[in-house]
Design a protein that fits this description.
This protein is mainly alpha-helical. 66% of the residues lie in helices and 1% in strands. The chain is globular.
Length: 278
């Protein structure tokens, strides 16, 4: 049986994200000066976290190049992962809805921007469920529009996230969440290309792995920091939404379309055009 390379790559990004999250939790606990929140230069956790991020991105680039070089050789490998893809899409959708429910019950009158964001979250969750049913290239372009909804949702969230933190000069306090959001926006964008019959598997794999890595780093960092070091870094709403992005990215990465020889009715094979890639 052929080995599903995307599963290995995505699992590696998840593992690296857990390591990054542990370093992130220690960074939040020990790398900032008390009272000023200024970053302590030369801190071991910060240096280690920067190194793991650089190494991870280089590995993601290598995986994307591998995907590009082997394009057309593994077109049927992902068939065994269809159930896993659908399950992850469904998990992503319900995690999104959980995030909305939490925001509604936590109290207080939400701002107009948050109401819009929650409405987009519900629409995105519904769209993800549709993607779970039509999660293969060219299965039905009638549903392709719904693949764009998470892109709009993510971009709106990115705007809100940066607006609320742009006055903070210490970018290191929120940089990993920001990177996770940037990666996920591009991941959703290239994932949407599958629905329109324009797959770009190598670029898609890079952003899927990046989303899994940075989202896991941010979420594990928040949880571990709160549980182990009693830091005030855990924000359940942002953590939940990042988990939804990571689950979607894992599913999208597993379902990457890699074209191979197409079998005709007469038994002959025909090589389809190479996927457009940048």
């Amino acid at each position: 049986m052929k080995q599903k390379k995307s599963l290995i790559f995505l699992s590696l990004s998840l593992l690296l994200g857990v390591i990054g999250g542990i370093l992130r939790s220690r960074q939040v606990a020990f790398a900032f000066e008390a009272g000023t929140d200024l970053l302590i230069k030369g801190n071991f956790e910060t240096v280690g976290l920067h190194i793991i991020c650089i190494v991870s991105v280089l590995l993601f680039l290598a995986a994307a190049m591998y995907m590009r070089l082997t394009s057309g050789k593994y077109n049927d490998e992902s068939a065994g992962f269809i159930f896993t893809e659908k399950l992850l899409y469904i998990v992503s959708a319900f995690v999104l809805l959980f995030g909305v429910a939490y925001e509604l019950i936590k109290g207080g009158a939400p701002a107009a921007s948050r109401i819009i964001f929650m409405a987009l979250s519900i629409f995105a969750a519904a769209s993800v469920l549709i993607a779970a049913k039509h999660n293969r290239v060219n299965t039905s372009k009638d549903y392709a529009f719904f693949r764009l909804v998470p892109v709009f949702w993510n971009c709106f969230w990115l705007i809100l996230f940066y607006r609320d933190r742009s006055s903070n000069p210490n970018v290191e306090t929120y940089s990993y969440e920001l990177l996770a959001l940037a990666m996920s926006a591009l991941m959703f964008y290239y994932s949407a290309g599958d629905g329109f019959g324009a797959p770009k598997p190598s670029i898609g794999l890079f952003f899927c792995m990046g989303t899994v890595f940075f989202s896991t780093t941010a979420v594990v960092g928040q949880i571990a920091g709160s549980v182990i070091y009693m830091s005030q870094s855990f924000h359940i709403d942002s953590a939940v939404y990042l988990l939804a992005c990571a689950a979607f990215a894992f599913a999208a990465g597993l379902g990457l379309y890699v074209p191979g020889p197409v079998t005709q009715e007469n038994g002959m094979t025909e090589d389809p055009p190479e996927p457009e890639d940048e």
